[in-house]
């Protein structure tokens, strides 16, 4: 049985202010929980039904609290519309990004992504395409938002993510580093020879790449539309996470073709 204070504490982690105060976040769902239990993240506690514990073994090195919870108690601590039979609390962490990395591999930079689901999907996509680093603007949605964590499906354990003031970071980059950005006046992406290192900037869902960031873009690219007549009511733009997936794919495909 969970105490009222324990329930209150876990429920408080739904809020960014409390996550920052306690330096903790939550993850729910068996697949995600098991993956994070076996990751480099430090687990502080696991809360699950008796049946879940009967069917799942904790890692031998698990040092957090273990609590058996009833279904009604899981309903009180969940951030999901339908509660999972298990919830894990973990320590947040700060990742430092060395700009020299962009000279040897591709790095994703997110310019004010606001939707937690989009951020989580971008992280999952980055993991699929082998991107090891993501740098977020300070205005990008919180990485440890429960919806973001859920959308990563465990990829948060394999991708290094940090927050930086982007203008400052761009000024620190070696001048030889290419900075790609998707813009309407860019070159058709299908006719572009991509580098196998550098920065790829993904803009905000509604306004794209910020005006303050655009001067740093060295290579403007454009995802072509296959709408025969763009004036006939076709889609105005792509969702940020979809655009990111297309760009990541094209960079990796281009690299494979050039080998």
Fill in the keyword field for this structure.
single chain, 259 residues, alpha/beta, 60s Ribosomal Protein L30, Chain: A, Alpha/beta knot, 2 domains, six-stranded parallel beta sheet, 9 helices
Map the helices and strands:
Blueprint lengths: L3 H9 L3 H7 L1 E5 L1 H8 L5 E6 L1 H6 L9 E4 L2 H7 L8 E6 L14 E5 L5 H13 L4 E5 L8 H7 L7 E5 L1 H7 L6 E10 L9 E5 L16 E4 L17 H19 L1
Parallel strand pairs: 2-3, 5-6, 5-9, 6-7, 8-9, 8-10
Antiparallel strand pairs: 1-4, 2-4
Helix pairs in contact: 6-7, 6-9
Can you give a write-up of this model?
- The chain has 259 residues and is of the alpha/beta class.
- The chain folds into two domains: 4-91, Ribosomal protein L30/S12 (60s Ribosomal Protein L30, Chain: A); 99-258, SPOUT methyltransferase, trefoil knot domain (Alpha/beta knot, 3-Layer(aba) Sandwich).
- The protein has nine helices and ten strands.
- It has helices spanning 4-12, 16-22, 30-37, 50-55, 71-77, 116-128, 146-152, 166-172, 240-258; strands spanning 24-28, 43-48, 65-68, 86-91, 106-110, 133-137, 160-164, 179-188, 198-202, 219-222.
- It has a six-stranded parallel beta sheet with strand order 7-6-5-9-8-10. Strands 1-4-2-3 form a four-stranded mixed beta sheet.
- Helix 6 links the parallel strand 5 and strand 6.
- Helix 6 (116-128) packs parallel to helix 9.
- The chain is elongated and about 60 Å long.
- The model has no long low-confidence stretch (mean pLDDT 93).
């Amino acid at each position: 049985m969970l105490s009222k204070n324990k329930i209150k504490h876990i429920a408080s982690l739904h809020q960014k202010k409390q996550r920052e105060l306690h330096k903790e976040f939550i993850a729910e769902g068996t697949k995600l929980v098991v993956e994070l239990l076996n990751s480099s993240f430090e687990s502080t506690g696991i809360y699950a039904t008796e049946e879940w514990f009967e069917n799942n073994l904790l890692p031998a090195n698990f040092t957090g609290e273990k609590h058996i919870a009833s279904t009604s108690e899981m309903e009180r601590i969940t951030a999901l519309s339908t509660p999972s039979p298990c919830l894990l609390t973990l320590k947040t962490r700060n990742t430092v990004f060395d700009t020299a990395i962009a000279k040897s591999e591709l790095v994703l930079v997110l310019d004010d992504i606001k939707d937690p689901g989009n951020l989580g999907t971008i992280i999952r996509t980055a993991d699929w395409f082998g991107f090891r680093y993501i740098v977020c603007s300070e205005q990008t949605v919180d990485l440890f938002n429960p919806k973001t964590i859920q959308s990563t499906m465990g990829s948060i354990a394999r991708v290094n993510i940090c927050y930086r003031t982007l203008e400052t970071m761009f000024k620190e980059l070696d001048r030889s580093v290419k900075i790609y950005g998707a813009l309407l006046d860019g070159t058709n992406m299908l006719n572009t020879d991509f580098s196998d290192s550098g920065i790829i900037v993904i803009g905000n869902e509604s306004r794209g790449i910020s005006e303050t960031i655009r001067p740093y873009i060295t290579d403007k690219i454009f995802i072509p539309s296959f709408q025969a007549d763009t004036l006939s009511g076709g889609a105005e733009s792509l969702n940020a996470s979809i655009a990111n997936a297309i760009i990541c794919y094209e960079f990796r495909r281009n690299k494979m073709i050039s080998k």
